[in-house]
Amino acid sequence: MGYIVEFGQAIFQFFSSRGGVMTKSGFEILLIFLLVYAFLRLLEGTRGEGILRGLSVFLGVLAFITVAVTHWFPLETVNWVLTRMAPVVLIPVFILFQPEIRRALIRLGENPFFNMFFRPHSHFTDALVRATFDMARDKIGGLIAIERQVGLSSYVEAGVRLDSEVSLELIKTIFWPGTPLHDGAIVIRQQRVAAAGCLFPLTDNPHFSAEMGTRHRAGIGVTEESDAVAIIISEQTGKVSLAVKGAIQQNLDEKDLKRALEDIAAETPVRE
To answer: Among 37, 93, 39, which Cα is nearest to 62's?
Structure first.
């Protein structure tokens, strides 16, 4: 570790002696960039990645407003509030509204052009829709989450990893009553079944009907915590629902579900 520190100091002294202030500033910017990049790579594929992106946007806008007010406009009262009161007020606000702020930061961190989970692929969509409604006709309950930009790695790691192709036989076998994994959820990543037996957080939104079961609340909950899409099959009624961004569409038929999945898939390209 000492060799790395000495090497960094040597590079810093080399650039400082040859380029003055500009070279020194450039080196500092490069160092900060590398640290931030390494941190982002560490968070890649987790919910923290989306939260950090949203937080970066928020802090960037806040910093710009603060600089604009303090240096460009003679607004003394606003300047005082931003520089003195804001830090004191923000801490309790973040503590009190932590779940709501976390979800808002995830939404803010979603790029509207790059927040989709797969390219339109008729074979994949057809297989998923066919499996969904075959289960619905037999009244086999199921919950299928499709990962998009915000990773679901924490749920995948807690479940049973599969990394298998999407097929009617596999999905129906997983959710068949009495099998060890039927009470959990499936996570689909890059058009493959990444894991089964996954457990999602339940929504605490009071606006949803109290008659909604655990499976529906878990499907909504995972779309509140991430940008995933959740397909829910009710074992009581055989009805199919689709949850997106904390909202739910119920009583879908095969055409409705296929159209919805294709519309979402067409928004952005596959994650690399």
So the answer is: 93
Provide the whole-model pTM.
0.59
Residue 221: both structure tokens together: 């909950």
Helix, strand, coil percent content, the chain, rounded in steps of 5: 55, 15, 30
CA-based R_g, the chain, Å: 24
Residue ranges and CATH numbers for the domains of the chain are: 2-108 (no CATH), 122-265 (3.40.1700.10)
Residues 237, 242, 248, 250, CA torsion sign:
negative
Tell me how far apart the alpha carbons of residues 232 and 239 are, in angstroms, rounded to a whole number: 8
Nearest partner of 185 among 169, 202, 206, judged by Cα: 202
Residue at token pair 């927040």: 115
DSSP SS3 for 209: coil
CA-to-CA separations, 186 to 21, 134, 146, 179, 235, in angstroms, rounded: 55, 16, 8, 14, 16
Cα atoms in the Cβ-side hemisphere of radius 13 Å centred on 270: 10
Do residues 200 and 155 lie in contact, with contact meaning Cβ atoms separated by under 8 Å?
yes
| 122 vs 193: CA distance, rounded Å | 17
Do 201 and 222 contact (CB within 8 A), yes or no?
yes
* Rounded Cα distance, 64 and 226, in Å: 28
Give pLDDT tens digits for 118-165: 344 457 788 899 999 999 999 999 999 999 888 898 899 999 999 899
Q: What is the layout of strands, in order, in the sheet containing 142-146?
A: 160-165, 192-198, 185-189, 142-146, 229-233, 240-244, 247-252
E strands present in 182-246: 185-189, 192-198, 229-233, 240-244
pLDDT in tens, 177-219: 989 998 999 999 988 999 999 999 998 888 887 778 899 999 9
